[in-house]
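Design a sequence for this backbone.
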């Protein structure tokens, strides 16, 4: 490897050579090593690529929307002496049967759900809507053909529904107490609005930055054909599978019930490997390695949204691995800036809800 100046990708496959019939056996060990090498990379010309940069205005209407979300998060349910409406929480008993036979998971007592959240099938929510506490109803429901419960998928069930309680959401008043609950010590509502607007503006800037970054890296990827070593793709595929397993296990799911197909992660693995190689080579050629003060600024920006920013900054510098991650992000920022300086960048007005992912 050193003599030929080879950069090995992955691990070599070592196979001993066996002596042929009639050959004398010597004390020397002979073997063959089969391995892949890193490809030669020439970052492509991105001048023909286009990147759309979102323009989003944060005004008082967006602040009002955010405040309403915060009020709902801090609201409380109280009994309502009327029929259930969207947004209400209902407590019900229900029992379902198919062809007169009860089925697994088709019945429950004291079951709670909020109308309009999509937790139940639409037909079930429609049946419950308008029912008051003490009301009963029998209705039919056809399960979708692709329903996750294979035993009932595509079949029609009859449900008996009994409403025990209807509760409506009472929102807290927009007053000093509410402001104090959001961390404004003196309860000044106008200061609370200013803080919320600043937070929304930070989140908007963060999402715009993420969108632009994704497009810029994709432009670089599209402009740079590269033959990927299979060993690196296989390793990255396994990393993604492992990350997905850990994520689902952290949510309490039993992995033996959820078989993973590595092929489903292969496209993402190829893109990650390709971008890793391209970004690394571009950074070397264009001297895009981040400076310590740039990394520090990035860490401080991330720490702004926490109660004790100075403690968060200190936390990043306590572990080399955390610092390495931030250095990697800073490097990507430099690469994105380089792409934007070469590509066609167009500013495009985008609705606040679309950027935040809440457009209906």
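Sequence:
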């Amino acid at each position: 490897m050193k003599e030929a100046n080879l950069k090995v990708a992955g691990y070599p496959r070592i196979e001993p050579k066996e002596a042929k019939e009639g050959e004398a056996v010597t004390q020397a060990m002979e073997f063959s090593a089969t391995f892949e090498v890193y490809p030669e990379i020439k970052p492509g010309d991105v001048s023909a690529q286009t990147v759309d940069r979102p323009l989003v205005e944060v005004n008082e209407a967006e602040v009002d929307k955010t405040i309403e979300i915060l009020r709902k998060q801090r609201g409380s349910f109280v009994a309502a002496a009327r029929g259930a409406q969207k947004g209400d929480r209902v407590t019900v008993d229900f029992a379902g049967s198919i062809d007169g036979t009860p089925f697994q998971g088709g019945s429950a007592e004291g079951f709670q759900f909020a109308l309009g959240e999509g937790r139940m099938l639409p037909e079930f929510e429609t049946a419950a809507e308008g029912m008051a506490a003490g009301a009963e109803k029998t209705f039919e429901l056809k399960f979708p053909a692709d329903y996750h419960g294979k035993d009932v998928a595509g079949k029609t069930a009859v449900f008996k529904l009994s409403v025990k309680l209807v509760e409506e959401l009472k929102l807290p008043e927009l007053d000093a107490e509410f402001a104090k609950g959001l961390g404004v010590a003196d309860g000044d509502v106008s200061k609370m609005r200013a803080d919320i607007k600043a937070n929304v503006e930070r989140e908007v800037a963060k999402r715009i930055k993420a969108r632009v970054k994704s497009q810029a890296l994709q432009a670089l990827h599209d402009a740079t054909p590269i033959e990927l070593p299979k060993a690196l793709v296989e390793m990255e595929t396994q990393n993604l599978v492992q990350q997905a397993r850990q994520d689902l296990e952290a949510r309490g799911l039993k992995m033996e019930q959820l078989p993973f197909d590595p092929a489903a992660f292969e496209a993402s693995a190829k893109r990650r490997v390709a971008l890793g190689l391209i970004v690394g080579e571009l950074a070397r050629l264009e001297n895009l390695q981040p400076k310590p003060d740039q990394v520090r600024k990035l860490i401080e920006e991330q720490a702004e949204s926490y109660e004790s920013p100075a403690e968060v900054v200190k936390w990043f510098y306590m572990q080399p691995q955390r610092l390495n991650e931030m250095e990697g992000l800073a490097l990507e920022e430099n690469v994105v800036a380089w792409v934007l300086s070469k590509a066609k960048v167009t500013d495009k007005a985008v609705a606040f809800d679309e950027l935040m992912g809440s457009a209906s």
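The first helix runs from residue 60 to 73.
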